[in-house]
Amino acid sequence: MAVTDATGPRGLFDQKGPFEMPEGFLDPSNHWPFRLWQDGLAYTVDAFQRTALVMDVLRQRGAQYHEHMAQTAPTVLSFESETVLDGATLPRPVNYSLQRIIPPAGVELDLKKRPFVIVDPRAGHGPGIGGFKSDSEIGVALAAGHPCYFIGFLPRPVPGQTVEDVIAAEAACLEKVIALHPEAEGKPVVIGNCQAGWQLMMTAAIRPDLFGPIIIAGTPLSFWAGHRGQDPMRYSGGLLGGSWLTAFASDMGAGLFDGAWLVQNFEGLNPANTLVGKQYALWDKVDTEAPRYLGFEKWWNGHVLLNGEEIQYIVDKLFVGNRLATADIVTKDGVRVDLRAIRSPIIVFCSKGDNISPPPQALGWICDLYESVDDIRCHGQTIVYAVHESVGHLGIFVSAAVARKEHREFASNIDFIDVLPPGLYEAQILPAEAAPSGQSGQEGDPNVLRFAARSINDVAAHVEPLPDDERRFATVSRLSRVTLGLYRDLVQPWVRQLVGETTAEILRGLHPLRLSYELFSDTNPWLNGVPELAAAARRDRRPVGSENIWRNLEQRLARQMETALDVYRDRRDATAEALFMGIYGHPLTQALFGLNADDAPPRSHPGETPEHRRFLAEQGAELRRRLHVGGLREAGMRALLHVGLAERMADARGFNALRGLRDIHGRGLELAEFKQLVRDQFLMLLLDPAAALETLPELLAGATAEEITRLSEGLVMVAGAAGPLDTKGRERLESMVALFKDLAAKAPKAPGEASVAATAPAATAPASGAEPPNPVLDGSPAVAPPAPEEPPQAPRAPAKPAAAKVRRAKAAPTPKEPPPAETSVISDEPTSPPVDVAAEPKPGPVATAPVTVPKRAPAPRRAKAPRR
């Protein structure tokens, strides 16, 4: 017989002295059979306690649901608000309203700053998610000192309410906000989350005069786009046979569509999280998870209703028809909804982790509408996109981390975004220490916001458009019209006769999502004893951790269940995709619905109107005439943009330095005037780079040496605020500094001013004997230089041509490194050489037209109403 201890087996007869039992030998925890039993007892107590607590949380969720839905205007906003405009009082009544957010104690607003307007999605859930917590879209805007407004809605729509009525109501809300803030420096910033984003874009296309910068977060605009194997929701319309099922669901609701069906679709995308992950997270961490769970469920279960006409419009024209991205929607008033009519900067925020509105659907409209970046500039548009690497759909506008980083940067740099020249940019947010200069853009900001110039090919890399898939979805769109027509003629009359208001209300109450809240609530008598059980569990709580064998096994089993459901989801989605591709990719199917009648693409590019081309030509001629107009402001901005274009990067630190100079030397220059100044000089550099640089001496002809020297010093400070320039940028900066130094040497001296260095190179200004420019020959007005020490004047209208011809003035030498005419200054896309846009425009694609942007686009063109 032997006894085992730390030194190994030992015989009893080898024991010297009295026998001693090894330490801990009789402790059950040191032997796995006893530990298994002991852990089992502890785990059983903990599991029963957690179950009682979870049942009580579910009971609270049910009570919260009843309380929430009993309110007249339920919302999950965490900020106090007051109604400013009720949509029910509008000429076309809707269930929307405009709320003014009352800032919390300690938050000071700057009424000079433009207001923010946040619009929540009406896609099955109730309003308020944009201000769900302090770290939210509303929270960061208030923290930046902006007045905030919120556009919410009621659970039930107004009878007869349509999508176009809601668009008109949103326009009325913005008119009200603008009227309340006449002193604000700019139009309101409007944020649209998910479904609200595309609705706002439609409003901005119809009423572009009401909008400042537009931020669309997690918003789909190109509904057919997506990656194979990743975005299965886009196949639903084809696999269900079109939009007839939407009409059937509305008829079963007596003309009202239940938003709970939309929520159930979202949950079906990730069955592992819906069935196991979310519920197990509550059971696993019930001691700490309950408040977060109840807070989210308050919004998630606040289902709303839509009119049947509203949801049918959305499905037919957007989800299945995909007509918004190609300007193929015409309102009942005869106005074509063309997103190219928007004049405000558009910020598209999406995420690779979003399986509801993935990046291809958020960015695909850019590829649908524009052929090149020059095409974007021709429409006077600034488009910025930011792609998050991992956050999910709700996290885009709910996550506190996203609010503290992305939304904070957008809010604090919104004026910078507003003055960006027309083009396509990608927003990059870098930690301050990783930035080239190692400094942040603003005090207390740990990050730096930059905008990198991008091309259409960069966006196409995210979208990955496939012409074969386009034809498949076009086939579904045509099939949908057939099946919807058959349903309306053969089935709909019978359904409407059978389903009335009472039946519809009963059916809504039996929806699986609503039923789960009813079963786990105080209305269920079987749950009367749950509060007492939960209270007893809290009084004698005995939790166990992962070191418990059975607790560890439970956690492993939960992970395996989630993995199994993920495998099921992947197989299901792969099968759905294979069926869709096979059915709608078959040549016979496409031929049956007219897709093989010609080789034209299913959705044609919207093209350009003769009026727009003529408008571009007129504006290009006007810009050429104004190359000689201006003074210190115009010369400084043109030189700064010439240097910055070599970098292909705009940095918030450079803008903040420039804004500081504007505040000191701007002499009352408003933000709108500053924005127009930037855009005009940028477009002049793109239109005719050589002439834009040659005319710099003319702009400074009336300045003193001290003014030119200060201008050169400001140029160096702003250009270097974001860190060292690259080689090309540094060469351009040196050439501009040398030019200003030469001009300062030739300029008149102010009283008491020290003379400039005598070693300055020869000035590049025109010879004193040169004759003034001839407006008849070169289309440029003869402009008298401004008097010294006077504030720079706004550009004047061009003078009338003289009757007699005079000789053309000699052009000044071009500074070093003018941009080549064969390549766009800010993009790598080929462009045609500068053309005299005053001439009659030639037919051809817009991308080959001169790069000009109008100050104000013509009103949206009315489409002819169809004859009855």
TrEMBL record:
Q: Which Pfam families match?
A: DUF3141
Q: Give the InterPro entries listed for this entry.
A: AB_hydrolase_fold, DUF3141, PHA/PHB_synthase
Gene3D superfamilies, per database record: alpha/beta hydrolase (3.40.50.1820)
Please report the name of this protein according to its UniProt entry: Uncharacterized protein DUF3141
The Pro residues compositionally biased stretches are 783-795
Bias (Low complexity)? 757-771, 845-856
Segments of this protein annotated with the region Disordered: 757-868
Basic residues: bias regions? 858-868
Organism name: Nitrospirillum amazonense
